[in-house]
Amino acid sequence: MSTNATKKRQSNITLVHGMRDYSKDPLVIEKLERARAFIAKNGLPKNSKSKKGK
Amino acid sequence: MNLPKYQVSADDERFLYEFFSEGPKGSIKKTVIYSEIEDGLFNLAFGDWNDELNKLDDSIRSNNGDRDKILATVASTAIDFTDRFPQAEIFTEGSTPARTRLYQIGISNNLVEISEDFEIQGYIDHEWQPFRKGINYEAFLIQRK
């Protein structure tokens, strides 16, 4: 895809400075831990690039 | 994807996105956060910002009449995120089976458009398989084509 097409398609995204850091929010951490537990238990698809691909 | 979507603010690193759902229930701040599970693998967390509690909440059904627009907006963040990290794989599951089913419906309703950009797999019956409509998956893995 051309750069112009990419810019046009993503025109609804604006980069901003100083956004609130949600990464330490309890919900985000809880979901991250749940995801890790799910993947540890069930793995990932065979074609996954991750080391946990089955 | 040319579906209607909201304007989104993203942080410089492209891990955090926020936008406002507009509808009968008012203006509701929505957030999408990509957190690294391991190298190249990210979890997508989605929730509403609760000003009173000063934290994110994904237990509320806002019923703002704009579900498809919200899902298209979330998909646009995934496109932007994978523009920044083309090799990234995105894992997501709902906080409840009902919420996961909502994601499944959203993907199904926009499958043609989403499939232009992404390969989607769903987990069900102890295995990952290519996403198909009408199946209640437990989780999803999204990769850029």
Structure description:
The complex is a heterodimer of chains A (54) and B (145). Chain A is mainly α and 54 residues long. In chain A, 44% of the residues lie in helices and 7% in strands. Chain A has two helices and one strand. Chain A has helices at residues 3-9, 26-42, and one strand spanning 13-16. Mean pLDDT of chain A is 81; it is low at 1-9. In chain B, strands 1, 2, 3, 4, 5, 6, 7, 8 and 9 form a nine-stranded mixed sheet that branches. Chain B has 145 residues and is α+β, with helices and mostly antiparallel strands. Chain B has one domain (9-144). In chain B, helix 1 (67-84) crosses helix 2. Chain B has helices spanning 67-84, 97-109, 111-117, and strands spanning 8-11, 16-23, 26-38, 41-50, 55-57, 89-92, 118-124, 127-130, 139-144. Chain B is built from three helices and nine strands. The interface between A and B is large, with 36 and 48 residues.
Keywords:
A: mainly alpha; 2 helices; disordered N terminus; B: alpha+beta; 9 strands; 26% helix; 41% strand
Unreliable spans of chain B are: none
> How would the global form of chain A be characterised?
flat
- Summed over residues and divided by their number, the pLDDT of chain B gives a mean of 90
Largest sheet of chain A: none
Put simply, the count of helices of chain B is 3
SSE order of chain A, one letter for each helix or strand? HEH
Quaternary status:
heterodimer
User: H/E order of the elements of chain B?
Assistant: EEEEEHEHHEEE
Helix-and-strand structural type of chain A: mainly alpha
Most extensive interface: A-B, 36 and 48 residues
Distance between the termini of chain A: 31 Å
Task: Tell me the structural class of chain B.
Answer: alpha+beta
Average pLDDT reading of chain A: 81
Q: Mind telling me the C-alpha Rg of chain A?
A: 17 Å
Cα-atom radius of gyration of chain B: 15 Å
Number of strands of chain B: 9
How much of the sequence lies in strands of chain A comes to 5-15%
The helical percent of chain A reads 40-55%
Which spans of chain A of ≥5 residues are poorly predicted at pLDDT below 50?
A: 1-9
The count of DSSP E runs of length 2 or more, i.e. the number of strands of chain A, is 1
